[in-house]
Batch of 4 targets.
Target 1
Amino acid sequence: MRRCATLVTLGRGLGGQAVIGDRMEDVVGAARCFVAAALLGLLAGCTVPGIRVRDLPQPTVRSSWAHAGIRDDRVAFATGFCAQLESLDPASGPCAQWLWRLPESTGHEGSVVPKPAPDRRTLVIIPGILGECVAPWVTPFSADYRALEALGYRVHVIPVKGRASSQLNARIIHEALTGLDLDDAVVVAYSKGVTDFMSAATLPEAANWRDRLGAFISVAGTANGSPAANHSAGLYQSLLRRLPFKYCQPSDGGGVQSLSYADARDVADRFAASKPGFALYSIIAVAADGPVNPVLRDFHALLARIDERNDGQVLLDDAVVPGSTVLGVFRADHWSIALPFEDSDALAMRPLSRNNHFPRGALIRAALEYVAPVARNAQGAESAPGVTTVP
């Protein structure tokens, strides 16, 4: 209890001092604000004992992936990931160090691409909770956008609100996708962006674009919520509203509540019931015995009281999209698997860059090659068009 009280005091103290801006002191303040935000995660962890009686309205069952209708493509996908790693980033070491132990066989030998690969393909990126706060510096897989454009992917980042509810962000995603060329497009959503996208895909008016998508890839997704949000949403919301981020205003303040089991599982159930016509994939991070960002470390340990198989924010079971194909379970924390803090020169990103190394370039290229490839005749990197942030 003393540790939790200390964190409360520290979180409040750091949370009221600085706004992310352009001056040096503002940048330093930004780092403090983000440390404060992560400390709030620790606060939530202080109250996470497991599943409570009050969770009965959202009952679940334990089942193998096969019995739950989840396809396991880890062995087949590992071949492509390892090949990309050897080609792009051999300095990152042997492939096996990034993968949790694979089964001998899953019965699936490779990707299934129903149509010939187009010359160009739209790639939509949806950031997660608080992603708007660091968007001036880092977005999911942002260090690889230029290379992906050169390969033939038209990269569009949807500017969802970092502290908003999934309902509000669903409207933003719907409006953005309505205006894009989505023929065989692939959506890559990270963290809460997964819940936001699933909420958007179940809107009645989403029928205008839903059938044009080719694939949806969840990366460290909050597909079924998070126990921290489930038990401490009120504390999160109260304190996060006080953080004076310049680039991510409170909006409707419902971001954390959207990750509660009650809200997130309702979205997941409606998404599964809608029987989406595009392919679904899950990429999962588990940091049980690997390096974790110091800001996430204690939170990871607290979640481990429920399940050691977590990434510091999300449990393994909660990261699987209903009805999806699991491409891999990687040795990474919630940030390192998708957010290239280590590649940013911004002072504000330094506290977030520790233990952040992961071969994200190999991962995103392998995922796209596996589920949504493009023909090998795209233009060179020197003439690749810029990345678009969808208005």
Note: Residues 1-49, 377-384 have pLDDT under 50 and may be disordered.
Target 2
Amino acid sequence: MTVKHLTQQIAEAVVTRLTGLTATQDNVFDGEPRALLQALPALVLKEGAEHAAIATCAIPRRSERTYLLDIEIKVKDGTPMSELRDIRRQVETAMASDRTFGGLVKDSYLTGKDDPHISYDLEKPVGVMPLHYEIKYACPENQPTTPA
């Protein structure tokens, strides 16, 4: 069995953390599923950039990384703003409940959000509110599967 890259482990931990929220239930996806319209309201993880810096000189060197992850709240067009805000509250509360995900990462926090907007990428318009998270983690440079 292949051990997963830490970013995959982090994404899976975020999905687990957000699954079961009152508003979105089990509608939490790592990437956009084909049947998204049937699953609204939903949360969709979108992977962003990642930045790395070497923290030690000893071999193997420790790489300290910043992983950018967006959590998009997606709702049916016409959903009241109060419902979007309530889903946002639930997401922020869940994500802050253990910022290290049991020691998998060093820290994680909300860095901002974009304005809610309507997306026309699917068959029907969908309301979207992206929340931006920064996740700090470290690993040996030759073992991107192992937290350091």
Note: The chain has one domain: 6-140.
Target 3
Amino acid sequence: MKNAMHDMTVAELAAGLKAKTFSATEVAQHFVARAQADTTGSFLALNPEVTLAQAQAADARLSSGTAGALEGVPLGHKDIFVTKDFPTTAGSKMLEGYRSPLTRRWCSAWARVVLAWSPWASSAATNSPWARATKTAPTAR
């Protein structure tokens, strides 16, 4: 059995949320704290207030039985995806501060956004935990 939420698979997190082993708010708090403690420079944007509000809304849907399959499972994504509450820079300084006027709702079965991240290949200065010495992309495991 895995002890930490960050060691759980998406399926394990979803099952734990459905079984009410933990709440979406607890999951969000865990992942926000991990992102805030990150020292790799991988995260471009983190919005704890929005994240926790989304988690509380997910908890309400989980309680009412209207939740999608992955409701409450946090999602971090590359910043090439246009989202309402996070900047979209595509790793470019030219788009720094850009916020799209468009709002795209994720599929109702999908998770809520926790953060936007910068992969090792972006122009942002990152320190990949998988390739600290070489500064190259990690190989498939």
Note: The chain is about 30% helix and 10% strand.
Target 4
Amino acid sequence: MDSHTFAQAWLESEGLFGKDSDYGGMLGKAALEVVDFMAKQGHTGGSMFALMEILKAFYDAYNDPVHPIWVSYWNSDKGKALVYQFGGKEDGDAFLQRLNSEQHVPKPGPIAKPALPPMPNPTPEQIEDPTFLAIWNAIKSWDVNVPEHYVGYCGATGSHVILIFDALKAIDN
């Protein structure tokens, strides 16, 4: 089952398309569009999970009004102009004084991990090899995880076959 079909069934089962759900079903539609967009970019289980962690960390920071990026913005000429436009000079000055006098500790973001090596790609010759085909027929319906190369699970691909293929070839040598 592809991610769109699963997401649509899950969103429907959670009632997120209903007119009585939050935002009248718009969140379900928006979530499905995001799933489709991420799939179009080629994300699968592993990279989709990692991307979601990054996006969550971004929105946590974006919604934190005292994040250092926001503090820097509010102290810029453009930010101050908005503060004064909406709060007036007196309230704007009080806001900026309060903002700059507090100790701001940003929330921790995702822990940066070292880049993982890319998955190997099979050559045209390997794809025709009977061993490759036998491995593919055995794993093609599996969800797999290769933590040495990515985070999370995804459907088996030719790259997964090559990892097994190469390990078997190493035994023969």
Note: The two ends are 39 Å apart (CA to CA).
